[in-house]
Structures are given as structure tokens and as C-alpha cells.
Specification:
This protein has 69 residues and is an alpha+beta fold. The protein has one helix at residues 42-48; strands at residues 26-31, 37-40, 57-61, 67-68.
């Protein structure tokens, strides 16, 4: 079976929904410790995210919107 590249298909805001700063090289669509999901920069995800994986979060390249890892 061919490896399928997974991409973020929705519009991407310019800034992290938690801190309001630009994303940087990557962004995470992930569960926040307070409950709701958010598009987070790596820094916010490292302190306020619930990890990576199904049901927790996915990491994407900001430049290509391709899933990383």
C-alpha cells in the first residue's frame, strides 16, 4: 500500500490560538489541558497540550501543511 501524505485542509490562522504569536516551523492541532482543541504553536503545546497521537493531537509543517511524524 502506498504511503499517503496527510495534509491540513482547512484555512490556517496566522497565529497560535493559545498565545496569539506566529506558529513558527510547526503547528499542532491538539487537545488543550482545559478541554477544547486548539491550533497551537510548539511552545504552547509543550506546556498546555495533551500529547500527540489519535485523540490527543497532530503535528503539521506550517510551510507545507503536511503532517509530521
Amino acid at each position: 500500500m502506498k504511503n499517503e501524505i496527510k495534509k491540513w485542509m482547512s484555512p490556517l490562522p496566522a497565529n497560535c490560538e493559545v498565545c496569539g504569536k506566529p506558529f513558527g516551523k510547526y503547528f499542532i492541532d491538539g487537545k488543550h489541558i482545559s478541554g477544547p482543541w486548539a491550533l497551537m504553536c510548539e511552545k504552547c503545546h509543550s506546556t498546555q497540550g495533551c500529547g500527540l497521537g489519535m485523540g490527543s493531537g497532530q503535528k503539521y509543517s506550517t510551510a507545507t501543511k503536511e503532517k509530521v511524524g
